[in-house]
Amino acid sequence: MQDTPLPDQAAGPQASPPPQPKPPRRRWGRLLCLLVLLALCTALGWLGGSAQGLSWLCQQLPALSQQQLSIARSEGSLWSGFTLHDIRWRARYQDVDIDRLQLQWQASDLWQRRLQVQLLDIGHVRVNSRPAPATPPAGAPTSLSLPLDIRVERLQLASLTLLPADVRLYGLQAGYAYQNQQHQLQLAQLQTPWGSTSARLSIADSTPFATQGQLSAQGELEQIPVQARLQLSGQLLALQVDGTGSGKGMLVEAHGVLRPFALNPYNRFGRLDVRVGGINPQSLFPAWPKARLGFAVHAEPDGGSRIKGGLSLLNSQPGPVSANQVPMSLLVGEFRADDKVLYLDKLMAQLGEGQLNLTGKVEPGSLDMVALLHNISLKTLYATAPDDIIKGTARVAGPLAGPDIRASLYGKSLQLETALGFEQDATGRTLLLRQLALTAGAGKLQASGKLGLEGKQLYQLEGQLQKADPSRLQAGLPVGELNAAIKASGQLAQPLSGKIALKFSPSRLSGAPLSGQLSADWQGQRLHQLLADLTLASNRLQASGAYGVAGDKLKLLIDAPNLSLLGRGFSGTIKGQAELSGTPRAPLLSTSLRAERLHLPGDMSVQSLSLDGDIKADAGSPFRLQLAADKLQAGSFSAEQLRAQGNGTRTRHQLQLDGRLRLAGQAYQLQLAASGGLPANSGQWQGMLERLELAGKPGLSLQSPLAVEAGAARVRLGAARFRLLGGSLSLAGLERSNGILTTRGHAEGLHLTELAPLLSLPVEQNLVLDSAWALNLNGKQPQGELWLKRVSGDIRLPAEAGRPAPLGLKAAQLNARLDGGSLRFDTNIDSQYAQLSGKGSLPWNGGNIDMRTPLAANVSVSLPSLAALAQLSSPALELGGQLSANLALTGPLGQLQGQGNIQGSKLMLADHRTGIHLGDGVLQAHLNGRSLVLDKLRFASGQGDVVASGSLDLRDAGPDAVVRVALNKFSVFDKPSRKLVVSGNAELSMVEHKIALTGRIRADQGRIDLPKGGAPTLSDDVIVKGRKPAEPSAFASLPLTVALDLDLGDRFRFVGQGLDVELTGVVKVTASPGLPPGARGQVRVVKGRYKAYGQDLDIEQGIISFVGPLDNPVLNVVAKRHLSPVGAGVEVSGSVAAPRIRLVADESMSEKDKLAWLVLGHAASGDRDDSALAASAGLMLAGSINDHVGLFDELGMASRKERTLANGTVSPAEQVVTVGRQLTRELYLGYEYGVTSADQAVKLAYQLSKGWSMVLRAGTNASVESRYTLRFD
Q1: Which of 15, 440, 526, 951 is the most exposed place for a label (fewest CB within 10 A)?
Q2: Residue 1272: CA atoms inside 13 Å, Cβ hemisphere, count?
């Protein structure tokens, strides 16, 4: 055997084996992972990037959240932004409903560790909380940092409703950011039932969490404007709080240090000082009682972890609880607290003339409180309570969840001993009435029992009455002496069940004997047994049997000829019997009932009533029903006569109803006819409504037979046509079953004027509308649409002189859509004056929409041409320009808040009667809550402008306003006869219906020309019989206060009433409500003329002084004849009401000469001048009339002396009629006519100086005169 030799390794390296191929499984695994990753990315892309993916996610939410979260509908995609509709969260202790949520964000920013949200818009939110077990307080956080930066640019919330507290917030607009280790919240707006709020808050994300914040609020309480401010500073773990609030008669101040994360609730504030005055709690929360409270609370550290403090409360408007008021007028006391116990020391409450003293302590798990009552009037607590004054003690001690309550109270005639407690077992907590002993005079009530507070809420009660007198417990109840025993038991939770047994021993009520017994046993809808036999004098009630299932039968018998024995509100007689059998779904009835002069409490009465009925179970059995009632009254409903009858068999019968009714004060005639039947063992009536006529305003008439099914299970109406409101209504169908209502139909040609008796509108209208609807109302997902359109008619607006002007409606339409929990609407109105469009929503709330329901809406209004509005006012008024507004409305329907801008351009206002012309107007304003802020209103006129700004607070009690006006060379009037250019500043304010005007106005240039004359008018003291007195001016009763400085400047000219003057001076005009206007200051005449006695008088001195009433200034005026050689003229002094006028001259002379120089221009000389003077005085009346008419400057008669003409002829003296006009101060043109010679001449005179003049005459005798006068007298 030979071994095989080994290869020689040194011979060289061996060749490497070829590479082995990779296993195919590894390739397939990688490929599979890649496919899985690709599928996952595709799924994520589909879920996040498509609308279908988001919708699928929403559909899976109920299963993923154990049916707690659901979303009805979605729009958009997760990555690009989305909108969710009808979001519902159902948890054990809380239900949340959100009608809409919209998110606009940048998903790509997440790669940069940043969350950027442009818009988070949340619609109406409704949160319904239920009692939840107490949870231990949360400890202080260690950090508030977040893994990425966050920025929410716009956070909006339409409304938030918190139940059962019924707290409602509206129109939230905010922004949030987390960056640079800071949380920042900016609350731009939050509307509450009391006003608007804004706030800002910043918190550091690391301990000790430095905090800065501020909250401002403005609103009104009881129609009184209030303002509040709250400042936060320091650290989140020890927060400094300072707050103030004020309003008319109200004051709130709060200062303190809060420790919100302290485990012991008594240590959650380190210092507290709160003072409040003049607050009505009902104005804050409508469900709270009314009062007028002022209180103060203070607390401070008392070494270590202990605190001490006190409180005091004063109620200036106490009242009984029955009037929803607080009976307590004063509360004072002290308290102490440490880590475990809160001690209340010497707490005293004043209740009318009585007092309640309270002492005790409260520990984390228990309490022990003792109350001492002294001389407390029960009527102070409740108006209808017994008239007694009580004393006694009450104590509450034991665990907080179930303390023992004992009370021992007594008065003049009342005495109460009671003991209550709680126990816990497997069924839950139970309230125990261990003892109740109430004594009223000789009467006594004793009772004991228990009531389960959870689960089935089982109850038991046993009691006994001994000689009880109801009148001692409440006024109005009858006097009696009741002796009875009562037992009751059952459960309050559904299905409701119980047993009751009441047995009277010999008793008396209203002086009559009372006896009998009653026992009942029911469960759910079945009455297992009812046995009753009660007798009150001649009144008797008997009942026996059962009702609820087939085979049961219940018999009733009543014979009550004297119901007044039951007490106040009862009277009349009633007698009858009834037998009820079958089931609630298919009742069987046999009855006969009569009543006369019946009155029952609650404003219910009938003069006579008879009812007979017989409804059997067999299909062919007779069906008989007859009802007759006269003078029936039930609240606001009344029927003078009502008749109803049914005849036939159960399955086939006819029904008729006739009546004369009165609803809401309107008389109606009702006629109804139907035929149908009740199937065997069914309570659903099926048939046809053949006639329905309601005659009245508004009326209703059935135009085609209507199929009807009605019963407890379902109500169904078929298709039908009605005549309604002057038009027609077509009903496609209506059905209500299982809490779901569905209906469809449309209406055409409805005249709203037919609703006038029931609907009072502030404007006249003759609108005709069309409508259509399709509704499916169910508790979970209500759906529906409503459409309303105006087809003809118009609205007439009140205009000047009581002439209504048409609105000029071209189109008006309203569309409403019900989608889940919200009602959305949009509307469009187009008229000759304006166009309006709006969209909005409000929560459906199961159809419970009232004035507190929140609204969120956007409204756009456009007035393209204000010229059309001129016809609503005076024809002399001209308007121009255009207005537009874009507003967002939020808040409750009864107190809407608004935000938005109002703009106007090319505005123009012209009053052709006064010459006022405002042009090139620009308006910039905005609505902020219930305030209209006038940012800028500018008008140009002439070479200047007027600019106004201010605000108008639209309060319920009346608007408050402040408007500031700045005028710069503003042309108020611009007419040949009236021109006024002013500059200055003024402020017009209105507070609580009182108006105030202040400021200073200066006339840069002015000319006021009064009319030369007019028709004569009667003085104010003349009364014309048969003529209505003139209505007082609106300004006469206006509560106006004025403090205005009027500066006439140095270019103010006044022409009128014979005056032509330039004025200057400053007058301060004042006015107060109920007082005549007054003024202080002086107006001086710079230069001017006064026309009197047919002459132009130069005013040499003119001062008008105002020192009191505006219409009775002091005068100091001297006016002289132009270029009079002796300075003849008049002087006026005194006041306007009592002026003193005398003739003056520069030289001493008689009054006769002064008058001659004034009238004739020369001194009196003999009888001829006396006659000339008399003639001139005789024509003064004509001259006065001419002064008003203004045709001539001179109209009168003068004396011409004898003179020798140039040709030697002698012209005798004679009287000359002169008519002339002063062309300038020196040049005069006139016409002369000689009375005796009939000579005529045109006269042209020029006054060269005071003594030298040139006169030219052309006419019968032409002449030229140069006259120089020297006086030597």
Answers
A1: 15
A2: 0
Burial 43-77 (b: 16+ CB within 10 A, else e): eeeebeebeebbbeebeeeeeeeeeebbbbebebb
Tokens of 519: 């026992």
Name which of 185, 357, 365 is nearest 265 in CA terms. 365
The DSSP element (H or E) to which 271 belongs, if any, is strand 269-279
CB-count exposure of residue 1224 (10 Å: 0-12, 13-18, 19+): exposed
d(CA 836, CA 840): 13
**Neighbour count for residue 192 (Cβ, 10 Å):** 18
Residue with tokens 């002007």: 805
- The answer, yes or no, to whether the previous bond of 19 is cis (omega within 30 of 0) is no
Check if the beta carbon of residue 433 is closer than 8 Å to that of residue 420.
Answer: yes
Q: Which two tokens stand for residue 858?
A: 């956007």
**Residue 1252 corresponds to which tokens in the numbers above?**
């030298």
In angstroms, rounded to a whole number, what is the distance separating the alpha carbons of residues 487 and 737?
A: 39
Phi, psi of 870 (to 5 degrees): -60, -30
Euclidean distance between the first and the last CA atom of the chain, given in angstroms as a whole number: 195
- Find out whether the peptide bond into 495 is cis, omega within 30 degrees of 0: yes
In degrees, to the nearest 5, what angle opens at C-alpha 1194 toward C-alphas 1191 and 1200?
145
- Give 459's contacts (C-beta < 8 A, 6+ positions apart): 449, 450, 451, 452, 488, 489, 490, 491, 492, 498
Q: Which helix (H) or strand (E) element contains residue 647?
A: strand 637-649
Structure tokens at 439: 């004594």
**Cβ-count burial of 19 within 10 angstroms (0-12 exposed, 13-18 middle, 19+ buried)?**
exposed
Cis peptide before 164 (omega within 30 of 0): yes
Asked if 359 and 336 touch (Cβ cutoff 8 Å), the reply is no
The burial of 129, by beta-carbon neighbours within 10 Å (0-12 exposed, 13-18 middle, 19 or more buried), is given as middle
| Other C-beta atoms lying within 10 Å of the C-beta of residue 480 | 24
Q: Side-chain half-sphere of 1019: how many Cα atoms within 13 Å?
A: 1
Distance in angstroms (rounded) separating the CA atoms of residues 669 and 692: 11
* CA diameter of the chain: 204
CA distance 123 to 125: 6
What is the secondary structure of 182-237 as a DSSP string? EEEEEEEEEEETTEEEEEEEEEESBTT-BEEEEEEEEEEETTEEEEEEEEEEEETT
Q: Would you give the DSSP letter of residue 1146?
A: S
1069: nearest Cα among 1035, 1089, 1036, 1045: 1045
Long-range contact set of residues 977-980: C-beta below 8 Å, sequence gap at least 24? 977/1007, 977/1009, 978/914, 978/915, 978/1007, 978/1008, 978/1009, 979/915, 979/1005, 979/1006, 979/1007, 980/1005, 980/1006, 980/1007, 980/1008
Three-state SS at 1175: helix
DSSP secondary structure letter of residue 778? -
* CB-based contacts of 598, cutoff 8 Å, min separation 6: 563, 571, 572, 573, 574, 605, 606, 609
**661 near 637, Cβ under 8 Å?**
yes
